[in-house]
Amino acid sequence: MAKAPDVLILGAGVMGASVAWHLAQRGVRRVTLLDAAIGPGAGSTGRATGGYRGQFSTEANVRLSLASRAKLVRFRDEVGTDPQYRPVGYLFLCDTAEQLAGFRRSRAIQRDCGLFEATELAADDLAGINPHVSYDGVIGASWCPSDGTIRPLEILRGYLEGAQRGGATVHWGTRVTALERAADGRITAVRSAAGERWASPHVVNCTGAWAGGVAAMAGLALPVVPTRRQIAVALGHGLPDALPMTIWVRDGFHLRVRDGQALLNWPVDTPSDDPFSLHVHRPWVDATWAMARERVPAMAHAHLDDGAHWAGLYEMSPDKTVCFGYDPACPNLLLVNGSSGHGVMHSPILGELAAEWLVTGRVTSMDVRPLRPTRFAEGDPNPVNDLL
Ligand SMILES: Cc1cc2nc3c(=O)[nH]c(=O)nc-3n(C[C@H](O)[C@H](O)[C@H](O)COP(=O)(O)OP(=O)(O)OC[C@H]3O[C@@H](n4cnc5c(N)ncnc54)[C@H](O)[C@@H]3O)c2cc1C
Question: Of 163, 211, 250, 324, which has the most beta carbons under 10 Å away?
């Protein structure tokens, strides 16, 4: 006999947890989350460094960021845990006039969406914002003081515990292996590796970097693929936790400080036969460390913490924007996938929008058309020119 919740959510990372919490807020209590992992945070959410920014170059992502920021500010009162949103700023360092011009175009889009505080800085202004790095070759920057940092695992904990208080049930160690469909395309049952079976009028795919494979179980082509991102950890640098997120546009290298650890990120892929590999590539660590030492004088006295480096998976969509909505071929499978490395920061608003759609049958609070999963097949993706 199949178990039959009102909404069945596949994946209990930050996205699934946010959907469940927002459903509970709307009074939907019979919500079940299935997750293959043995406990919270084992997917990408627990591997995120915890950046938040509004400095995107597409309207869709700027709007998701601004709506999420409003919710992050209220999060502790509404959800009960502290997301630790700290507006330490994002500083994008530019070497060329073309790079600066690109950020100018992005800021025009940001202003149209209501983000007014992002601004261009001249080279002379930079040391006043971040005195801890070397500005060799840098001619200016884009700076937004309301960008900053957040705590992925506290956001996850808040949503998960709140959803459970509201009636939701989480089944850990439950790997979904099959989605059964009726002739009209609807999902009729979800099966797990252990042979359990769930039936629900509404199924939500929140399986992050694994979402393409889960959608394929229903015969859907969802273009969300994993991309490995690695983080090298340095100690003994003396940099403050309130260091702005500082990004060199020339190659994407960036760093932030969390709990005294300098988190070094050079966002390039290194070769692997396994797209889901979490192996940290030693040559990548060495190259990243060389960049850090060249660009951050405090690293001269610092050392790598070799046991602490880690890798995780971004859930990439072709235009680096979430796929949010229903595929017409499968009218009861809501997709919330492909945030492309921005899923923690966008989870507050995406969970709210998902709950709105599930409960009312439509979304009127935001224009979600640019997020529709079918935009690729229609030849109408969002413009892609975001660096990270
Ligand atoms: C190194 C790194 C840095 C990052 N930095 C940031 C950042 O600064 N800011 C930001 O916003 N985002 C960042 N991200 C991205 C962020 O981690 C993701 O966008 C976000 O966690 C996605 O949340 P999710 O719930 O969709 O995925 P996940 O947290 O991965 O959750 C998906 C869940 O689905 C489960 N699952 C998978 N397959 C199945 C199955 N078949 N059956 C059942 N369960 C299944 C998994 O076990 C997992 O728990 C970063 C990611 C990485 C790797």
Answer: 163
Which residue's alpha carbon is at the smallest distance from atom 48 of ligand 1? 43
- Angle at CA 94, nearest 5°, toward 90 and 100? 95
Q: Please report which confidence band the pLDDT of residue 272 belongs to, taking 50, 70 and 90 as the band edges.
A: confident
Q: What is the pLDDT of residue 136?
A: 97
Same domain, 247 and 280: yes
pLDDT, tens digit, 9 for 90 and up, residues 5-45: 899 999 999 999 999 999 999 999 999 999 999 999 999 99
Q: How far apart are CA 348 and CA 26, in angstroms?
A: 15
Q: At residue 333, what is the residue type?
A: L
Separation of 12 CA from ligand 1 center, angstroms? 9
Q: What is the mean pLDDT of residues 125-142?
A: 97
CA of 252: how far to CAs of 77, 93, 106, 246, 264, in Å? Answer: 35, 10, 17, 10, 11
User: What per-residue confidence (pLDDT) applies to 271?
Assistant: 75
Number of domains within the chain: 2
Q: Which atom of ligand 1 is nearest to the CA of 16?
A: 25
| Closest ligand 1 atom, residue 315 Cα | 19
How far is it, in rounded angstroms, from Cα 262 to Cα 234?
A: 5
pLDDT digits (tens, 9 = 90+) for 151-169: 999 999 999 999 999 999 9
Q: What is the DSSP letter of 304?
A: E
Helices (H), the chain: 14-25, 59-79, 97-113, 126-129, 152-165, 211-217, 282-295, 343-360
C-beta of residue 381 within 8 angstroms of C-beta of residue 319:
yes
**Are residue 106 and residue 219 in the same domain, yes or no?**
no
Predicted TM-score (pTM) of the model is 0.97
**Probe target for ligand 1 pocket from 44, 177, 205, 333, with the most ligand atoms within 8 Å of CB:** 44
Please give the residue range of the domain that contains residue 284.
87-148+225-316
